[in-house]
């Protein structure tokens, strides 16, 4: 009786093992069959998964012939000036779809509308430097219904709410938090983001046009983590020529170094133009140049969103 029981148990085990082997074979065969005959489908599905996990960097076209922006230690004023102006006037990435909001001339800004860069229904804009020109800010609200935080300590207007979506603050941006000799309250972008409880929000568009104060402000921004939550960055840069003073080699090294750090942080320039109000003739090269570039950068590290 005991031997018969063991025999039956052995047969059951053998059958189970046989079934498991057959199942393993069929599974392996089916996988090979699918890969061989429907490989394109499997590859397509794999691609969809990758796109969902990808950043915008994998979905944008970049220019490959851009300069490094490095000013060598031995560079004289003419060479340093050439490197800065070349680096500042190069496109680095392509935005396939864009729109200018606000004035066509000074005061308006170009906005990339491709994929994740298009302002969404709860979009947030930080706008530094108004100078009584509300065309960009008003257009952002009327077109995309964004919330706009607008700053300018040089304006006579006190803090107020301009319409349902625009808040104005008679304050400015700088490299640290302090009150200057004009009585202006200045803060870093990081401080403002904390002050308004926006630390966990994505800033759809950051605009800074603050007449040379952008450099100290940019340095503070780069030393913080706030840029990781900025999609687009509109920046007007100014050299010392805006005050009718020549830029030194050290100045040009400083400017270019910050722009290179911005690129290292994942911000690539897709748009730029000269501000013709800042034209001057260089004493170094006798060329007609500008003190002021209007640039717009894309954060290529944000997640991809299908258009």
Feature tags:
single chain; 307 residues; alpha/beta; 8-stranded mixed sheet; 3-stranded mixed sheet; 7 helices; 17 strands; 24% strand; globular; disordered N terminus
Shape: globular
Q: Mind describing the biggest β-sheet?
A: 8 strands, mixed
- Contiguous runs where pLDDT drops below 50 for at least 5 residues: 1-11, 22-53
What's the total helix number? 7
- The chain-level mean pLDDT equals 86
Number of strands: 17
Structural class: alpha/beta
Radius of gyration: 28 Å
Percent in helix? 25-40%
Tell me the span between the first and last alpha carbons.
Answer: 74 Å
Strand content: 15-25%
Strands side by side in the biggest sheet: 7-8-6-5-12-13-17-14
The SSE order reads HHEHEEEEHEEEEEEHEHEHEEEE
Describe this structure in words.
- The protein is α/β, with parallel strands linked by helices.
- It has seven helices and 17 strands.
- The strands form five sheets. The protein has an eight-stranded mixed β-sheet, with helices on both faces. Strands 9-11-10 form a three-stranded mixed β-sheet. The protein has a two-stranded antiparallel sheet with strand order 1-2.
- Strand 3 and strand 4 form a beta hairpin.
- The longest helix is centred in the first third of the chain and has 36 residues.
- The N terminus is likely disordered.
